[in-house]
Fold this protein.
Amino acid sequence: MQVIAPSRSRNTPATAVVLGTLVGVVLLGGGGVLAYLTLGTSFLRQFTPVGRASEAQLVAGAIAWSFALTAPALFGVVGLVRLMGVADLVLSSRSRRGTAASKATSLPDDFVVADRVRLPDGRTVPELVLGPFGAAVVAQLPPLGAIRTHGSVFEVRMSDGRWRAMEHPLDRTSRDAERVRRWLESDDRDHVVKTYAVVVAPEGAMERSASCAVVTPEQLPAWLAGLPPQKTLTESRRRQLVDLVRAAV
């Protein structure tokens, strides 16, 4: 099975990684230097009054000691946070591989999986699988701890902890499949490409709808392989579809 993935530059900008690492290292190193200067040398002695101190000396000493006790730790903490953010960025980009792509060895050789396909209207499809059956849009349900429903309203928890209403995954995936169908047909109106929609979710997380299937990650390969072949979709036409999708990744 062939996997078409976006270039690394679209997944993780190299400039963001380099700049974030540089800032983190500078901050962390700066914290170490400040800790040495303030605590390992006699730098603070000049701010320690000898005998009866004036008001200005007391203020300067208080500021110097406050800086010495807080600045090294602050620089170090901010530097570590920055480096951890870079690590999360790199790891998340590596873990963005979709469910279908991760099951590559379980899918037939004549299947093609494309990650994050950009449609002409600007919307991005998480995964698009091409095969003898036509095309299938594959979406993954967010973690169960990050989703909830209030009546008919579907909400997802964002990284800042806030809940935001979003389109129901089944409805969104069904509409994406319809968009993909119109897009593929616009390239060649003499052929109709069957499109399917499926959401990958834990067992029992939600029920399928009339237009969108729901399967577990383990069931996805069998579900895709079980889709009926489309007789009008010839090998040459499928190659054209692959080229069209590749250009949109």
Notes: DSSP finds seven helices and nine strands in the chain. The CA atoms of residues 42 and 193 lie 78 Å apart. The chain has a mean pLDDT of 81.
